[in-house]
Amino acid sequence: MKKSYSAEGISDDAINYYIQRFKEIKGRSDFQRVAAQIFPYIKTPKDILIYKNFKDLERLVDIFPHKIESNDAALNGGESVYNKNGLEIYRGSDKNSCVKYGNGYSWCISRKSSGNLFNTFRYDKNIERMFYFVFDRNLPKTDPQHAIVIHVYNNGKYGYSDANNKGDINDMSWNGIIKEIPKLKNLKKYFIYVPISGEERDIYDKIKKSVPESTENLLDYFKDYKLVEKYIDIGHLLSSSQFGNLSDELQENYFIRHPLTPEMYQKMTFKNKNAYLKKARFFYEGLLNIVSSEQELKILKNRLQDSLNTDSISTMAIAIPILIYFNNEYYIRSYFQKLYNNINDDPTAFNMDTIMPYVFDQNIRMFTSNYSNIVMDEFISYNDNNNRPLFFRADDLESFKDEDILKYAKILERYKKIPMEEIKKIYKVDKKIAVTLLLAVKEKILAKNDTVKDRILNYYKKWIGTELVEKIFAK
Q: What residue spans define the domains of the chain?
């Protein structure tokens, strides 16, 4: 999938951003409904592999903006090209201006993070877009045309994205723009295509390729601090040595876009470590092994606790493995409650994808002795109260204590779910319960066609013995 996106000319950094953001939004209660409106022909919208073209993934992800601050481009100054009667137009001549004018919206050219696609669109030799931000202060913010980005292409065509950002409308004439956005009538002269300068092209050519990892110091390589800054800004991943040789400011510019390896984290000053824990979007269980002071742990805990208030189930799930380090069962139960609250809006909210990010993590087993019992009890409670029972995968049972594996065997028996590899673990814990389970699903297995039936029975013979299987399934 990443290879196909790369073949479309999308940077690795942008690809990683969209994949990560997709994982965050697919747990939202409204994801299924919104995805169905955009792609009604897609039956499994939570499967990222369905989106073969990057444009489809981008279109879906961009509909779900992060929580944002309000925009006030008028107060920020900048490259204003028109300001009359409440209608304001600003030229987004570079990435920084696009980030400023788009603050508060989900446009991909306005992200502060690594997913910003300004460089991709501006320097694509086939398009070389210019961007203009239009704000109609007379319209309420509920109107999607209160804020619009106009795209001006090098071939004389236009496009636009409104405030809802439900996908770019491309390859339009100016008359097409006027038809969609009548307020821009007679204002064509303000939407000028500005060609890429020779200096811009030269800079981009210097920074577009990744510097070899064997080059440890980017400043020695580029001989120019600004070029190093732009190299990081375009989204390249750095080696540990390259990161360690950056200034504090450039390190921060990097870590607001990317997760850090333990080696990178250890190379930072105490000031930057604290800044990373407070600002970084990326968290992972390995942080617990590299934070080196009580103050760092406190910052980390406070930051992650805030995630319990997020609207995104997936975002909350990312934080919980680390929160459980602090040995408080409240976090697990809060997460399940969040899932339950979303079931009415989205019956798929409680599924293996929403549980897996943290329930079966090695660090959790290490830090929370009672988690196995809590999770299984919550799981049973869910199945007791809903019409769509869920089941674990065989490997998941590695994370549970023996008594909880037996609880799970009872779930399988109750719903007459045919066990496959799970029977190996159940049989190892309690042979009698394993046999009882197989007897409960005997008729269901024997009713299968011969190919499927033989495959199942061969599994059982391998794991619990031929003699016992033949005895259980004798007609």
A: 2-62, 73-190, 225-282, 304-472
